[in-house]
Design brief:
Layout (H helix, E strand, L loop, with lengths): L3 H15 L1 H7 L7 H18 L10 E5 L5 H8 L3 E6 L2 H10 L8 E5 L12 E4 L8 H12 L5 E5 L4 H10 L16 H8 L3 E9 L2 E8 L2
Parallel strand pairs: 1-2, 1-4, 2-3, 4-5
Antiparallel strand pairs: 5-7, 6-7
């Protein structure tokens, strides 16, 4: 099983070189296939679920959007008044997020192309990590939560749940040569993650929409 650094580098390669255009389109208003439309709708629902864990008024709060992608969560947080650090391992996605952000909100957002766990990013009231830990092992997720938990009051994040369908898809994906496929999501159960991460982990809810299925979890150090 790949370690954190190896997986991180693979995710960077995928999103920065292979899937940038597809991801840019998926996270826009452009027409997409029916399958990708379900993913778009699922992500919208998940984002709303994650944001429900934070106050509607975030003025005075500092929030890390860990794995900001093209910046949809970043903009939502900034509109609530937060000071946002938008971090992503893909410089190209960070650039898209920067370019899409409304000019009126730019003074509230600092963009960072690099590791979302970098201690130099500082301390936060909350960390939002939507679909940015889905490629990692339980051990690496626990380590990431431990690192972020030292500098944040709460971490709200998503994982792929251990459902029968996702387990079949995961096993099938392992059959393909690594050079011919994107990073594979690793399904997790709450009990396994709790054993790895320790107390403070709880399940917020699940979003299942077509080809998008994800669990929202919260970690409070």
């Amino acid at each position: 099983m790949a370690d954190y650094a190896t997986t991180r580098d693979r995710v960077e390669t995928y999103f920065d070189r292979t899937a940038t255009k597809a991801w840019e389109r998926l996270t826009s208003d452009a027409p997409v296939s029916r399958i990708r439309q379900t993913v778009r709708e699922g992500r919208d629902r998940m984002r709303a679920l994650m944001l429900s864990r934070l106050p509607a008024d975030l003025r005075g709060a500092r929030v890390l959007d860990a794995g900001c992608g093209t910046g949809t969560m970043t903009e939502e947080l900034a509109r609530r008044g937060a000071k946002v650090v938008a971090a992503d391992i893909s410089p190209r996605l960070v650039q898209i997020a920067h370019d899409r952000l409304a000019a009126a909100l730019r003074q509230q957002v600092t963009f960072h192309a690099g590791d979302m766990t970098d201690p130099a990013l500082g301390v936060f009231d909350a960390v939002m990590a939507m679909d940015s830990l889905i490629y990692y092992t339980a051990h690496d997720i626990a380590s990431t939560l431990g690192s972020l938990g030292k500098r944040a009051d709460q971490v709200v994040f998503t994982v792929a749940p251990r459902t029968p369908l996702l387990m079949i898809m995961w096993q099938a994906g392992k059959l393909f040569p690594r050079s011919d496929r994107s990073p594979v999501m690793i399904p997790h159960g709450l009990k396994d993650l709790t054993r790895a991460a320790g107390p403070g982990l709880s399940r917020v809810g699940r979003v299942a929409r077509g080809f998008y299925i994800s669990d929202c979890l919260e970690y409070v150090p």
